[in-house]
Each structure stands twice: as C-alpha cells, then as structure tokens.
Description:
The radius of gyration is 13 Å and the shape is globular. 0% of the residues lie in helices and 47% in strands. A six-stranded mixed beta sheet has the order 2-10-9-4-5-6, with no helix packed on it. It has a four-stranded antiparallel beta sheet with strand order 1-3-8-7, with no helix packed on it. The chain is built from no helices and ten strands.
Amino acid sequence: xxxxxxxxxxxxxxxxxxxxxxxxxxxxxxxxxxxxxxxxxxxxxxxxxxxxxxxxxxxxxxxxxxxxxxxxxxxxxxxxxxxxxxxxxxxxxxxxxxxxxxxxxxxxxxxxxxx
Length: 115
C-alpha cells in the first residue's frame, strides 16, 4: 500500500519560495509508469494541479504556474519536492502529494502566505 506524507513550512512570506517535500512509502518513486503530482486546494476554490514528475524524471507543469514551479526528486530518499517561487497570498492553500492515477494521496499540508 502506497502512502505519502507532505512536509514543509506552514507559513511563507510574500515574494519568498515555498518548498515542500513528499516522502513516499510502500513504492519506489522510480517504479515504471508511476508519476507523482502536486495538487493544491485554495480556500473556497477547487483543486488545482500544479505539476508532476514521471518515472523517467521528467517534470510537467500547469501552464499558469510553470514559470514559478519546480518539481524534482531525490531517489536516495524516495522523495519528491515542490518549489514555488515568488509566492503571494493567492498561493495560500492545502498542498497535496498524489500518486499518478490519483489512487493515493497524502494528508495534505496547509501553507499560508502572509507577512
């Protein structure tokens, strides 16, 4: 059974960089045909897909966030990371790490952007 756990700061100042880590348990992140996504849920809004990384290490991004986003992996730690630059209060959301196929989700982590 695949389990995911997000971690990172809960409060980020405007213009700074949001950095989150997803630790994956129960599967290798380089398993063939697996991908790992970051999705967020802003308050009062719907889910927004941010980006993902596939089993070959290729990253793909939501065009609306692409210029500020980086999704990477650390295979030695079985972790996937998210960096979102130049954040504003509109980036406040619950951030989820999700396995490709959306059949496994982390519990989510609240990130608030505020001075």
